[in-house]
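Sharing a chain and its predicted structure for anyone who wants a worked example. Both blocks are below, sequence first, tokens second.
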Amino acid sequence: MLIDWPFFATALALLLPPIAVFHGQRVRYRHISRDWDRQWGATFLLPHHLVDLLRAAAGAWLLAHSIARAPEITGVMKYTPEMIHTAVILCGVLLQTIVCKEPDGFNAPFTYLVGVAAGFLPPLVAGFALVFAIAITAGARSPATFFVVLPMAVVAAGALFTGKKMLLTLAPVVAAALTPWLFALLFGRDLVFTQWIRAGSESDARLREPPPR
């Protein structure tokens, strides 16, 4: 196994820090099961989502290119790169999910997973899987659907564009996409997404109120 350590270290620095530690007072949490009507503006205005997308894409690309299989390695050990990729991406998405400032809630890392898929997967596989998963999720009006449809779409796109022999390399994204949904079910918590509280809004007014004595 050949490792490009600068690439690998940078990938860890980008993928592992949970975005929730940077959420300030103007970030509010909303259950993904609630109605999304009139919520898109507040969601897209939150700059953390763009940062999350870009750093996940860059980190996943660096991770994919940081480890190469040594030609002399055979047996189970030849799959070490895939195992390391899976471990790092799983740790990353798990940290994004469970580190949450909403009591009894888990973050729904939509943009993080989109970035990971875009940066780690082959372009055709990523494009097909993401478009399909987003379209189905929007049509179903159930955001949690994304975490189930995306891994299926990745497997289908991988079989279509890369052949069955390449499916193992897609395992990190498939496992990561299922993680938030599975952990929410396992621990009985709600998945939440973050929004930006605009100055002058009712939520902003509540923030300005003095704390109760």
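Comments welcome. The chain is about 55% helix and 10% strand.
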